[in-house]
C-alpha cells in the first residue's frame, strides 16, 4: 500500500515464515491510525493463522471467548516486563503442543492500561526479554535505549521460542528498509528520551505532573521504571 519507489515488498520473505508459535497482538485503537506502525510488517512476514490482531482497550470473556480460552491455556505466555516476569530464555515448554504468545501493541502507557485493566491478561505466564539489543526503529522516540517496537519484540521472542535466530533477521529486514526509506526522505533519527535527558538535549517543556517528572528523574539516574 506504499508508493512503488518506497515499496517494502522486496524486503519481506518470499513465503510466510513457518513457525509453530501463534502470536496474538492486542492493539490499542490509537495504533491503527499511525502511518509508520510496525504490526502490518509483522503480519506480512507470518501466516494469517500465526498472527492474529485484536483491536481494543477492554477484553472480557463474553466478547472474546476465543481469547479467554487462549489465556487459560498453560502454553500461553504474555510478553510484558515487570517484577513478576521471567526472562523468556529461561521459560521451559510445558508440553509438545504449539505455544501462544500475547503481545500488547501501543505506547508504554497504553500497554500498561490494557495489561492492568484486563484480568484475562494476568492468567498467562508473564515473560520479558533481556535488554540485549537496541531498537532499530530509529524514526520513533522510545522511552529508553533498550525499549523495542512491537515487531522487534515479536522477532526476538519468536527466534527464542522457535530456536531459530534467522527468524529475527528476516522479520527485522522490512523494518530496517522502512527506516532507511524514511531517513532518505527527510525523517530524522529519534534518540530515546533517556538519551536526550542524559545529554541535555531534551528540548520540550518539562511536565508539570509530578509522576511524569519522577519518571524522567529515574531515566536520568539509570533506575529501572
From TrEMBL:
Enzyme Commission numbers on file: 2.5.1.25
Residues covered by the DTW domain: 1-187
An individual GO BP term: tRNA processing
Record's keyword annotation contains Transferase: yes
GO molecular-function term, one example from the UniProt record: tRNA-uridine aminocarboxypropyltransferase activity
InterPro entries in the record: DTW (IPR005636), DTWD2/TAPT (IPR039262)
Family: Belongs to the TDD superfamily. DTWD2 family.
Protein name: tRNA-uridine aminocarboxypropyltransferase
Taxonomic lineage of the native organism: Eukaryota, Metazoa, Chordata, Craniata, Vertebrata
Amino acid at each position: 500500500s506504499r508508493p512503488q519507489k518506497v515499496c517494502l515488498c522486496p524486503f519481506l520473505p518470499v513465503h510466510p515464515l513457518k513457525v509453530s508459535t501463534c502470536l496474538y497482538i492486542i492493539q490499542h485503537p490509537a495504533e491503527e491510525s499511525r502511518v509508520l506502525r510496525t504490526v502490518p510488517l509483522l503480519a506480512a512476514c507470518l501466516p494469517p493463522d500465526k498472527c492474529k490482531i485484536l483491536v481494543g482497550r477492554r477484553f472480557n470473556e463474553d466478547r472474546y471467548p476465543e481469547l479467554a480460552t487462549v489465556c487459560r491455556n498453560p502454553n500461553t505466555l504474555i510478553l510484558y516486563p515487570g517484577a513478576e516476569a521471567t526472562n523468556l530464555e529461561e521459560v521451559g515448554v510445558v508440553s509438545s503442543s504449539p505455544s501462544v504468545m500475547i503481545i500488547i501493541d501501543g505506547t508504554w502507557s497504553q500497554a500498561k492500561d490494557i495489561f492492568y485493566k484486563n484480568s484475562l491478561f494476568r492468567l498467562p505466564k508473564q515473560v520479558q526479554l533481556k535488554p540485549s539489543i537496541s531498537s532499530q526503529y530509529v524514526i520513533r522516540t522510545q522511552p529508553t535505549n533498550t525499549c523495542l517496537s512491537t515487531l522487534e519484540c515479536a522477532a526476538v521472542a519468536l527466534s527464542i521460542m522457535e530456536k531459530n535466530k534467522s527468524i529475527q533477521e528476516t522479520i527485522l529486514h522490512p523494518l530496517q528498509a522502512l527506516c532507511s526509506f524514511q531517513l532518505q526522505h527527510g525523517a530524522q533519527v529519534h534518540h530515546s528520551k533517556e538519551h536526550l535527558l542524559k545529554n541535555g538535549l531534551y528540548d520540550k517543556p518539562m511536565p508539570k505532573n509530578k509522576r511524569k517528572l519522577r519518571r524522567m528523574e529515574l531515566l536520568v539516574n539509570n533506575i529501572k521504571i
